[in-house]
Amino acid sequence: MTFSLPLGNNSLPMRLVTALLLIIWMGPSALAAQHDNALSEKAFASPHGLMAIFGEDDRTPMVFKDGFWKKIGKLVLRDHFFETKSCTATLVGERLILTAAHCLIDPSTGLAYSGGIDFLANERNGKNLGSSGVDGYVFGNLESERGDWAIAILKEPLGQTLGYFDLANSLPGATLISVGYSADYQKGKYATIHAHCNIREKQNELIKHDCDTKVGNSGGPLLVIRTQISKQEPAGVYLTGVHSQGSEETYKNFDLEKANIAVSVEKIIPELIRLRNLTQ
């Protein structure tokens, strides 16, 4: 299936575009879920955090449990004192999840979290569609911003039943869907979505984007909806970036110097192919 949306002066309003994209990929039930989102917006806490909001906060709660949303989950990490922190991760194989490398590192030791790492698929207020511990992980180059990615190997093959994302490169200007377990929304009990944000610049395998994010979004996917390019690249929702970092403010307008930053998937794809061959 292929589709296109009008551009330029005839473009559809952002909320209508978002609704159409969700209906295309999830069915009419998305409309009811969007209504629930609108009722829940007051649950956001103070806007202060370690990642940036540009203009109006466009995030809405992720209440969906069907379609591609079930492939995104919460990553819960425990240190040797069993204190916890959380990030976001995404299924990219039957037993593989993709997240940010810094999420897996305990800052007090400089080593991976020793108290346990768990992935909770489609976590929503204590309920999820499946969970698994982690058997191991492969990091990017931790000394480089563009190396802030990691692929973790799950103990359970959650991707066999829930499915997983393929990866695809995207150019500046691409329209994105950002998902993450923002700590300022009900203490991270639900993920939040910012649909119809954009890649503003891409250089040296780093993406500067204007998707609204807060603490907890680290490791979350930047998704892109692509029309069919070829039989080998069908229409679908692809993962094109891994959210890494941002500034510490809420800004009235977008500023490229203060943009949120994600790692593009170019250098991740070969390692993902290798790990899929080993684990599937």
Keywords:
280 residues, alpha+beta, six-stranded antiparallel β-barrel, 4 helices, globular
Can you put this structure into words, describing what you see?
This protein has four helices and 17 strands. The protein is an alpha+beta fold. The strands form four sheets. The chain has a six-stranded antiparallel barrel. A six-stranded antiparallel beta barrel has the order 3-4-5-10-9-8. It has a two-stranded parallel sheet with strand order 1-16. α1 (14-26) packs across α2.
Helices and strands in order:
Layout: H1 14-26, H2 29-40, E1 53-54, E2 60-61, E3 72-78, E4 84-91, E5 96-99, E6 105-106, E7 111-112, E8 116-121, E9 131-139, E10 150-154, H3 158-162, E11 175-180, E12 192-203, E13 206-209, E14 221-226, E15 236-245, E16 250-251, E17 260-264, H4 268-279
Parallel strand pairs: 1-16
Antiparallel strand pairs: 2-12, 3-4, 3-8, 4-5, 5-10, 6-7, 8-9, 9-10, 11-12, 11-14, 12-13, 13-17, 14-15, 15-17
Helix pairs in contact: 1-2
